[in-house]
Amino acid sequence: MRKGVILLAALAVAVLAGGLWITRAVPLPESAVPESAGDAAAGEQVFVAAGCASCHHAPEAEGDAKRVLAGGQRFPSDFGTFVAPNVSPHPEAGIGTWSLAQFASAVQRGVSPEGAHYYPAFPYTAYARMTAQDVADLWAFWQTLPPDATPSAAHEVGFPFNIRRSLGVWKTLYLREDWVMEEVPDATVDRGRYLVEALAHCGECHTPRDALGGLERDAWLGGAPNPNGRGTIPDLRPGALDWSATDIAYYLESGFTPDFDSAGGHMVAVIENFAQLPAEDRAAVAAYLKALPGGE
Fold first, then answer.
1. Is the keyword Ion transport assigned to this protein (predicted)?
2. 199, 171, 177, 250: which is closest to 49 by C-alpha?
3. Contact of 87 with 146, CB cutoff 8 Å
4. Residue 110 · residue 124 · CB < 8 Å
């Protein structure tokens, strides 16, 4: 009996240790953080393509105020409502005291400077594919943005999803750096892949999710229910989206479809961002979408 109790206790300790190991927050290794300072001008283009302001500006912000990253926008989901935090360079309310390494770990691993997991409403599963130089450039541009003292609001997430430690298991399943489109035919599609799968994180909205909230990569960009419960987000695969590459590029610049309809919802902000990028980037996204398989 005594030996059995000892064995069970040892097993319990081993299970606990394994659970703590699997659920730990793992920051980006130092070797993956660039040593040189980034370029702020290049970082502005990364900032726009990644849609940082679209989520983190104040709810009613317009014009230049959209670059004041005070947070406060609400994003409902099946797991609760997530509230965008203040990520301005303010030293107390924002992230003004962070280092480049801490910023890179947050953006690409979803790990806070305190060693806690961020919820994947922050699309670090897409940003994990960013180049180290783009992260450094983005951080350099971040330093030029105005600080704001607005306190961050808490997420409205109930049990058991409020146990952040469990996100370590979620990351084991879904945090990957490999590309969905494994091979690309040319440099244009390669650039489109980088924009769609990494910076612009298009799959976060346009790909269905499983019961745990992970993207179903077998149905990549195949459309999904709208998280707010109203309607669906369209399928972008060639068999469902019969627009020409020119049509797609023009839509990303103007918001107008070939049928003279216009974009709505969060896509308005996406187009606002893409309209600021070079025409070559919009053409690259179009080429990528036309190169996708499936959707018939």
1. no
2. 199
3. no
4. yes
Measured at the alpha carbon of residue 11, what is the angle toward residues 8 and 13, in degrees to the nearest 5? 110
- Tens-place pLDDT, residues 18-62: 554 467 777 788 888 877 789 999 999 999 999 999 999 999 889
Beta bridge partners of 156: 81
pLDDT at 162: 84
Least Cα distance to 71 among 150, 2, 177 occurs for 150
Q: What are phi and psi of 83, to 5 degrees?
A: -115, 125
- Determine the length of the chain: 296
Which residue matches tokens 């983005």? 138
* pLDDT for 245: 96
Q: Which of 245, 122, 213, 128 is nearest to 176 (CA)?
A: 128
Q: Give the tokens for residue 14.
A: 């081993």
Angle between helices 132-142 and 40-49 (to 10 degrees): 100
pTM of the model: 0.91
Structure tokens at 285: 């996204």
User: Kindly report the CA angle at 46 between 250 and 207, in degrees rounded to 5?
Assistant: 60
Residue 168: enclosing H or E segment and its boundaries?
A: helix 167-174
User: Which tens digits make up the pLDDT trace of 123-133?
Assistant: 999 999 999 99
Closest CA relative to residue 192, chosen from 239, 233, 245? 245
pLDDT of the residue at 15: 46
Please name which of 216, 235, 255, 233 lies closest in space to residue 296, comparing C-alpha atoms.
235
Residue with tokens 């081993």: 14
